[in-house]
Design brief:
elongated, about 200 residues
Length: about 200
């Protein structure tokens, strides 16, 4: 099976997820800049989530560029990833509306952790279907960022109950780690094209 429908479906779902997230923002009732203060936590959580969704979209795009064929397992793993990402607007709104309270901040991290695990499962199934010598397998290499991210999420989830601001900072740290598009796949493509 080709990958075009998988890419189009994933792009559409991510676009809807981002749209739902922004619809959760409500303008303040006042007209002064001070009226923005009550909505600031929700706006900050939205910014973090938008960055995360952008990172997933970008890296998902790069990863699928390496795919020659799609298996049933890859289809289900992709849906698994999209499921966890579809919860981002809900946990974003909850965390922001609660002004980064411990429980909602921890649940936000749990969704990020489960999305990271789902991405790893998808990546692993793609490598399994394409072979260990595939472009994606070569590009991933040791995948230090991919291994460090879940560990940071687990620490952040625990930290949410002690210092929610620390959990938020750790979530932002992971986002910064991934903010620059993953160049490993681009380098693998470039190496393949060299004579």
């Amino acid at each position: 099976m080709g990958k075009n429908r998988l890419e189009a479906f994933s792009d559409g779902v991510l676009a809807i997820i981002i749209t739902i997230a922004v619809l959760g923002l409500r303008p303040p009732h006042g007209t002064s800049l001070a009226a923005l203060r009550p909505v600031l936590p929700l706006f900050l959580s939205y910014i973090l989530s938008f960055v995360y969704l952008g990172i997933y979209w970008n890296n998902h795009h790069h990863m699928l560029a390496t795919v020659d064929r799609v298996t049933g397992g890859v289809l289900w793993a992709n849906l698994h990833l999209l499921f966890w990402l579809s919860l981002v607007p809900f946990v974003t709104g909850w965390m922001g509306a609660s002004k980064f309270a411990a429980g909602p901040t921890a649940v936000y991290g749990a969704v990020l952790l489960l999305a990271a695990i789902a991405y790893f499962v998808l990546q692993s199934l793609i490598v399994a279907s394409q072979g260990e010598g595939s472009l994606l397998a070569r590009a991933i290499g040791r995948d230090l960022k991919g291994k460090a991210s879940p560990i940071i999420y687990v620490v952040a989830i625990a930290a949410a109950f002690l210092a929610p601001w620390l959990a938020g900072a750790l979530y932002a740290l992971v986002a910064v780690m991934w903010l620059i598009p993953d160049r490993r796949i681009e380098r693998a493509f470039a190496a393949r094209e060299e004579p």
